[in-house]
Amino acid sequence: MAKKKPAASNIAAENRKARFNYEIVDTLEAGLALTGTEVKSLREGKASIAEAYATEEQGELWLINSNLPEYLQANRFNHNPKRRRKVLVHKTQLNRLAGAVQRDGMTLVPLKIYFNDRGVAKLELAVARGKNAPDKRQTIKERDWNRQKQRILKEG
Fold this sequence. Notes:
With 156 residues, this protein is of the alpha+beta class. It has helices at residues 18-21, 36-44, 91-104, 133-155; strands spanning 11-14, 22-32, 53-57, 60-64, 85-88, 107-115, 121-130. The longest helix has 23 residues, at 133-155.
């Protein structure tokens, strides 16, 4: 059974620069351990994962440097916007991800946070390798060529 892509309206936060700065090797869907005010803040769509990354510490996977702004109606029961959040993955997946990071020099980059069909917040995590300047230039060339190709097809 093929996985369905999340609808654009369900996406709470997206790291648009990740595919430009990194070569995506593999992706993984994981859960997030969130508090109630964090979920409400995510539903408002003001979260940012542009500088976020994931790391393995003491047998657990953590999302670091993600910014979920405070939920204004929560007053004193609010959360810390920059706190570390636990990423929920199976032990075998954690071992595979940690091995890729240690052996191959990869990094774990969050691509998007979205709500699935059941309304549960999910994190799309990528095992990625950093691109250098020539690779980035090639990506820009391909993007420009695709844009020109679409214009030509539209005119002709």
